[in-house]
Amino acid sequence: MSKEKIRLCPECKGIIKSGHTEMVYELKDIKITVKNVTANICSKCGQSFITGHVAEEVNRLVNRVREDINSFIKTQPEASRGHKEVAIAV
Fold first, then answer.
1. Cα(50)–Cα(44) distance, integer angstroms
2. Which pTM does this prediction carry?
3. pLDDT digits (tens, 9 = 90+) for 23-77
4. 64 lies in a domain?
5. Max CA pair span of the chain
6. What is the mean pLDDT of residues 8-25?
7. How far apart are the C-alpha atoms of 22 and 34, rounded to whole Å?
8. CA dist., res. 3 & res. 90, Å (int)
């Protein structure tokens, strides 16, 4: 029977547990929020930690969304005005 090792937060020494977080990207005039990202979260200070694999996948998703938004703006000039905001739940 294996016992799971307790992980402590490097910031406050609280206990880190599995959970979900959101990641926000500010790219020029586009804000992309990715919600429900798998993460390890400190139960004391709330600091989120994500694995390298998850970060790569989220970055890939954000890059695709940014490319799609930029393509859309090229075909819809009136959409290019102002700040754009996109939220994605994974």
1. 17
2. 0.75
3. 999 887 788 999 999 999 999 999 999 999 999 999 999 999 988 888 887 887 6
4. yes
5. 62
6. 95
7. 5
8. 30
**Predicted confidence band of residue 13 (pLDDT cuts 50, 70, 90):** very high
Cα gap 52→29, rounded to integer Å: 27
Region of residue 88 (phi > 0: left; psi between -120 and 50: alpha; otherwise: beta) = beta
Whether residue 56 is contained in a domain is answered as yes
How many other C-beta atoms can be found within 10 angstroms of the C-beta atom of residue 15?
Answer: 12
Count of domains observed in the chain:
1
Q: Which tokens in the block code for residue 69?
A: 């938004």
Which is it for the CA torsion 67, 72, 73, 75, positive or negative?
A: positive
